[in-house]
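Q: what sequence does this backbone want?
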């Protein structure tokens, strides 16, 4: 039996450090006592897939982890959350990690490390599994594998979503194979040289015909559907930890895309899921249930 969504990209173990304020070099804040520290599972694609599974989709993860305790922890966590990990690539390189600094307001700084050798060989991607999916999701951490998966998906008429949060030499080629891009706020500006998100999206429209979505953090999200600009505000919640909110947004957006929801409904649903995730600690730890998302949608902003 096929799956609803296949994701190709990053997973990691997060070392989360809670601080009263962010550090500053050369002053009184150059040395701070942490209020708490925890380790939990995260990573862009892995967290998005955990969200997809929590919201009712059959999800499969294609990524690389190390042959170490962190790698086993990620596989165990995803499996317990209902994500198929049968095709994960286990490598000799250490599993990717991230150190996440959280201040009292729940804002974050992410410092991540991934060995270049930790990658998924494109020629080992399970083509039958990818071709069976309703949606394929990629990120920009393992670009050769992402490009191969996106190319195969588009050849089979499968929608491709993404998590692109920085620009590389491969980004323009990757975008050619993504039907439903979801960008971090800075990316359209960098791609186009524009300073305004709407102008950047309209510039991208000249070369990309699909729906274009930009996440705007605590301001919600923006989309260009045809020539119509949609701006959907964030839901107001008490923020505990914003780690993984963008990944959860993408997972919920995939849930809506798989069932062909209209753009506005899809983005509002994704905004609600991201908001719920901010009320909990951790990336995968913040993954919401469908009843939690529906309750926030009912309550409204």
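A:
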């Amino acid at each position: 039996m096929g799956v609803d969504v296949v994701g190709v990209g990053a997973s990691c173990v997060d070392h989360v450090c809670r601080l009263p304020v962010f550090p500053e070099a050369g002053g009184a804040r150059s040395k701070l006592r942490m209020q708490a520290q925890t380790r939990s599972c995260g990573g862009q694609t892995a967290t998005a897939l955990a969200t997809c599974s929590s919201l009712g989709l059959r999800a499969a993860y294609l990524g690389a982890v190390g042959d170490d305790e962190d790698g086993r922890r990620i596989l165990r966590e995803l499996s317990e959350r209902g994500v198929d990990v049968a095709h994960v690539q286990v490598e000799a390189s250490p599993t990717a990690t991230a150190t996440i600094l959280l201040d009292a307001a729940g804002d974050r700084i992410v410092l991540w490390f991934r060995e270049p050798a930790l990658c998924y060989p494109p020629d080992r991607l399970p083509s039958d599994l990818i071709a069976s999916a309703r949606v394929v999701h990629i990120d920009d951490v393992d670009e050769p594998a992402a490009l191969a998966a996106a190319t195969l998906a588009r050849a089979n008429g499968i929608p491709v979503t993404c998590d692109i949060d920085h620009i590389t030499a491969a980004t323009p080629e990757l975008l050619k194979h993504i039907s439903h891009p979801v960008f971090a706020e800075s990316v359209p500006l960098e791609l186009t040289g524009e300073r305004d998100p709407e102008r950047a999206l309209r510039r991208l429209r000249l070369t990309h015909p699909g729906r274009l979505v930009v996440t705007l953090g605590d301001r919600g999200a923006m989309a260009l559907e045809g020539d119509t600009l949609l701006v959907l505000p964030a839901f107001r919640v008490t923020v505990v930890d914003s780690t993984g909110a963008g990944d959860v947004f993408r997972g919920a957006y995939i849930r809506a895309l798989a069932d062909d929801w209209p753009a506005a409904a899809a983005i509002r649903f994704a905004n609600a899921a991201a908001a719920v995730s901010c009320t909990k600690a951790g990336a995968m730890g913040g993954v919401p249930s469908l009843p939690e998302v529906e309750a926030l949608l009912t309550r409204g902003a």
